[in-house]
Design brief:
Blueprint (H helix, E strand, L loop, with lengths): L1 E4 L2 E6 L7 H7 L2 E11 L5 E10 L3 E5 L14 E9 L2 E9 L5 H6 L4 E13 L2 E13 L3 E6 L2 H4 L18
Antiparallel strand pairs: 1-2, 1-5, 2-3, 3-4, 5-9, 6-7, 6-10, 7-8, 8-9
Length: 173
C-alpha cells in the first residue's frame, strides 16, 4: 500500500477481499494498515507503526497495484487527459470513461475513489521538488481542489524516474 496524504506519504500493507484495490477503497470508510511507514512532507521525518487505522477521507490518492480485475466487467471507453490538484500534489494522467461525454462531469457521478492511468505527480517534500511517474493512481474525488481538461502533450509522462513503491528506507535488490 502506497498512498499520498495531506502531510505525508503512507507505506504499508492492506489486506482486503475485493477483486480490485479501487473496489476495496470504495467499499470502506476506514482501513487498517499493517507494518506502516509514514514519511512527513514537511521535513522527511520517518515514523514507523505496527498498525494504523486510516480513514478514506485522509487519503488523497493511492497507488494502484495488483490485478486490474475481471476483464468482463470493463467497459470500453475513452481516455481523457486531465490535470488535477490534490492538496500539495499536482497530478497529470488519463481519466477513463464512456465515450461521448464530459469525463470530468462523469467523474462527479462515480464512487469517491477514481482510478487514473499513466500518471505522473509533482509535489514538495522537505523543501525539495519531486516529479515522478506513478503508473496508475486512485484519486479521492472528494479531495480534489481543482480538475481541468488537459492535453496529451501536458499529460504524457516525461522521462522521469518511477516513484519508489515502499519508501525511502526500502532496499532496491
Amino acid at each position: 500500500f502506497s498512498a499520498y496524504a495531506e502531510d505525508c506519504r503512507i507505506f504499508g500493507f492492506l489486506q482486503h477481499a475485493e477483486e480490485r484495490l479501487s473496489d476495496a477503497l470504495n467499499a470502506g470508510e476506514a482501513f487498517v494498515l499493517k507494518d506502516v511507514l509514514l514519511v512527513a512532507l514537511a521535513d522527511g521525518q520517518v515514523t514507523e507503526r505496527r498498525e494504523l487505522e486510516v480513514e478514506r477521507a485522509e487519503l488523497l490518492a493511492v497507488r494502484a497495484t495488483g490485478s486490474r480485475g475481471n476483464a468482463e466487467r470493463r467497459i470500453r471507453g475513452r481516455a481523457s487527459p486531465v490535470t488535477l490538484k490534490l492538496g500539495p500534489y499536482t497530478v497529470h494522467g488519463y481519466l477513463h470513461g464512456p465515450a461521448g461525454g464530459d469525463p470530468i462531469a462523469q467523474m462527479r457521478r462515480r464512487k469517491p475513489m477514481v482510478p487514473l492511468t499513466e500518471v505522473w505527480i509533482e509535489y514538495l517534500a522537505a523543501g525539495l521538488a519531486h516529479r515522478a511517474r506513478v503508473g496508475s493512481l486512485i484519486v479521492n474525488r472528494d479531495a480534489i481542489g481543482w480538475v481541468a481538461h488537459s492535453h496529451d502533450e501536458t499529460v504524457r509522462m516525461p522521462a522521469l524516474p518511477a516513484e519508489p513503491r515502499m519508501g525511502p528506507l526500502a532496499k532496491d535488490l
